Amino acid sequence: MSAQIPTETHGELPGESRENRIKRLSMRSMRRGIKEMDIILTRYADANLETMSNAELLEYDAMLSENDQDLYQWVSGQAQPKAEFAPLIGRIRQMLGYTE
Distance between CA atoms of 52 and 2, rounded to whole angstroms? Predict the structure, then answer.
């Protein structure tokens, strides 16, 4: 019987260590669809992933599955983020120097 490979695009992978999850999230942060989000999310990931709780890492992982154009509009204040991501988007905006 062959081992099954997880098909999830986000969330905790079975047997994934915290260290590997942080590395995976870091890579997903820097390899986005648009350069602006590469820069923004890489900066946020570098500054925060190591100190985030497991719940915060799961939330960040889920947010990374969102469309880059939507993420950029949320982060830049052009559109309201989904309620589930509003606190996280707020922290990213704060890191960027937005003051709302």
Answer: 34
CA distance 36 to 11: 24
Query: What's the token pair of residue 27?
Result: 């890579």
DSSP-assigned states of every residue in the chain: -PPPPP--SSSPPTT--HHHHHHHHHHHHHS-SSHHHHHHHHHHHHHHGGG--HHHHHHHHHHHTS-HHHHHHHHHTSSPPPGGGHHHHHHHHHHTT---
Token readout for 20 is: 């590997």
User: What distance in Å separates the CA atoms of residue 51 and residue 54, rounded to the nearest whole number?
Assistant: 9
Q: Please say if the pLDDT value at position 72 is more than 60.
A: yes
Q: Which residue matches tokens 């500054």?
A: 47
How many Cα atoms within 13 Å fall on the side-chain side of residue 75?
Answer: 22
Question: What's the pTM value of the predicted model, to 2 decimals?
Answer: 0.83
